[in-house]
Design goal:
Blueprint: E1 11-17, E2 26-31, E3 34-38, E4 42-44, E5 54-57, H1 60-63, E6 69-73, H2 79-82, H3 85-92, E7 96-98, H4 100-112, E8 121-123, E9 130-133, E10 136-142, E11 151-157, E12 160-164, H5 182-191, E13 195-199, H6 212-225, E14 231-234, H7 240-252, E15 256-260, H8 262-273, H9 286-291, E16 297-301, H10 311-316, E17 329-332, H11 341-353, E18 357-359, H12 374-384, E19 388-392, H13 396-408, E20 413-414, E21 421-426, E22 431-435, E23 440-444, E24 447-450, H14 454-465, E25 467-473, E26 477-483, H15 491-507, H16 517-536, E27 541-547
Parallel strand pairs: 3-6, 6-7, 7-8, 12-13, 13-19, 14-16, 14-17, 15-16, 17-18, 19-20, 25-27
Antiparallel strand pairs: 1-2, 1-21, 2-3, 4-5, 5-23, 9-10, 10-11, 11-12, 21-22, 23-24, 25-26
Helix pairs in contact: 5-12, 6-7, 15-16
Length: 551
């Protein structure tokens, strides 16, 4: 059992985020006394964290060893790979490395956080750029994905070469960038890839993820089919290739383009600043779009995941300058992320109630995933021929399945790990050697707090059970306020009876307990909670306040 986890003459792997979950990717490689971080992402909150928008990996392990951390290498610009940078990079105090498009996205985050003069950001060539960090020699390997400059990392170490895929797919008809070819990947395999650390997200998909070229044809068919109608397409703002496709579709169908969503505006600006979307049509403003004949405009909008503040939700709620009427069309050129079904359903039902036609990727070929299906995984295995597979970026079911797929495809060893499990890759037999702290943090307002801390736990309880405040004044006067108890017209009777119960319970205290504020508060709390459970079946959180002379 390692005590301080300083990497000795060995190669270690440790995920602090992104293993046994989708999102929040943070991976560490340890070698000869140094640690290298690959990606620093976050995820968006769900109902399990009331009042919270962003969730981060707990970096306590590497913060305690920051003196041994030599850099953070970013594979691409999706939020689940770069979103935590402005919250932790300054504290970690090490250089960042990224290709130009990703670096521009990161720089804007650092500027907003006033860290651009604090954090060192190094821009690496996006065409197989190579640099050295301590015992690691790192080369960017361009792969297709749903954002510009998706990259794998080829990491050379004294104990073998690692191919860290990042997020990837195979695309026979890419519309952006020049992904590494099959021949180039085979050549890497010929040189020897010992360890493959690989995206597991789409392992259950029996088909290839598909090409952006096919999406172009699908969108052309759909937009052409709805001639004379106003067409809105919602997609992921970061999918620069899809934005290029939609720009081409607008031009080829004779429609002017309108863009709705600040994140789209930002991505378009960053893309154009870095040489992408150079022939993208100049977007028209909302007023101009609404004045055009319905069949002469194509709208791109954020909000395909049902985000309540995004453009599509506001359009569906008729609270946006963009207006849709019965017969208009919304194309969902994005996949439904698990967990967003209810939010998406709310928006779609609002649109349906108004007679607006909707088309999703289940009905038409208007979206392809940015992650590899089984045939693509099997192809990569055959090209690289690794000796060890480490599945990452997936829930446990995805990673276990990829482990089985890899073994079935001839890879000698698969190590299926989860966040916090330290894996020794070399020397010797690869396997898990220990487990360390790997929890979650949340951004709660302006404060980064423990996801399982008292504040969030209490908030969940209040959301589930309601809350009461009991105020004791003088020698037994009691007043009560409550929130979230469905008593309605019974509330006055409930409060009266509860006050009487509390007064009686306090009156039964004897000796020291009758004078101890802590004992008095506890009796009042228990009595109030029992009364609430008796009246409505709920066990609310109860706060007792003593004012004035103690009873």
């Amino acid at each position: 059992m390692k005590k301080d986890f300083t990497p000795e003459k060995e190669l270690l792997f440790l995920a602090l985020g992104g293993s046994a979950e989708i999102g929040m990717n943070v991976n560490l490689y340890g070698c000869n006394g140094k640690w290298l971080m690959v990606d620093l992402g976050m995820t968006f909150s769900g109902d399990q964290y009331p009042g919270v928008d962003l969730v981060f990996a707990d970096l306590e392990f590497i913060e305690d060893r920051a003196k041994d951390l030599i850099g953070i290498v970013l594979t691409h610009g999706h939020e689940d790979h770069i979103g935590a940078v402005p919250y932790f990079a300054g504290e970690l105090g090490v250089p960042l490395y990224a290709t130009p498009f990703t670096a521009d996205l990161v720089l804007r985050k650092l500027e907003e956080a006033e860290l651009d003069n604090v954090v060192e950001l190094n821009i690496i060539d996006d065409d197989h750029g190579t640099f050295d960090l301590g015992p690691f020699s790192i080369t960017y390997v361009p792969l297709a994905h749903s954002i510009a400059e998706g990259n794998a990392l080829h990491i050379d170490t004294p104990y073998g070469r690692i191919f860290h895929t990042g997020d990837w797919k195979l695309d026979e008809e890419p519309t952006m960038g020049s992904p590494t070819t099959e021949e180039e990947l085979i050549a890497l395999g010929d040189d020897g890839v010992e360890f493959l650390v690989c995206d597991s997200t789409n392992v259950f998909n029996p088909r290839p993820s598909g090409s952006e070229g096919a999406v172009h044809r699908g969108l052309m068919e759909e937009v052409t089919k709805h001639a004379g109608r106003r067409v809105l397409v919602t997609t992921f703002a970061s999918n620069v290739a899809r934005l290029q496709t939609l720009g081409d579709v607008a031009r080829e169908t004779g429609r002017q383009l309108c863009v709705a969503g600040r994140s789209l505006d930002r991505i378009i600006e960053v893309a154009q600043d870095n040489g992408y979307l150079q022939d993208f049509p100049e977007p028209i403003d909302f007023d101009t779009a609404m004045e055009l004949p319905r069949g002469e405009v194509l709208i791109i909008a954020t909000g395909g995941q049902g985000e309540p503040r995004a453009a599509l939700a506001r359009i569906a709620d008729q609270n946006h300058p963009i207006e849709l009427v019965p017969g208009d069309v919304v194309l969902f050129s994005s996949r439904q992320i698990p967990g967003n079904e209810i939010a998406i359903g709310i928006v779609q039902n609002q649109l349906a109630a108004r007679g607006i036609v909707m088309v999703t990727d289940r009905q038409s070929d208007i979206h392809v995933s940015g992650h590899p299906g089984r045939p693509e995984l099997e192809a990569l295995y055959s090209w690289l021929r690794p000796n060890v597979l480490v599945p990452v970026h997936g829930e446990m079911r995805h990673m276990q399945e990829q482990g089985r797929l890899g073994i079935g495809s001839g890879i000698p060893k698969a190590v299926v790990q989860r966040n916090g499990e330290v894996v020794r890759l070399a020397p010797g037999e690869p396997g898990k050697i220990a487990e360390v702290q790997a929890g979650r943090l949340v951004l709660d307002g302006d404060i980064i707090a423990a996801a399982d801390g008292e504040a969030i736990t209490m908030r969940r309880r209040i959301a589930r059970e309601g809350a009461m405040v009991v105020v004791l004044v003088g020698k037994g006067y009691v007043t009560i306020e409550s929130w979230g108890l469905s008593l309605e017209e019974d509330m006055p009777a409930f409060i009266l009876e509860t006050c009487e119960d509390i007064t009686a319970a306090i009156g039964k205290l004897r000796g020291k307990a009758a004078r101890d504020p802590a004992d008095i508060r506890e009796v009042a709390r228990i009595t109030a909670r029992r009364a609430a459970q008796r009246w409505c079946g709920k066990r609310p959180q109860v706060k007792v306040i003593l004012l004035g002379e103690e009873p």
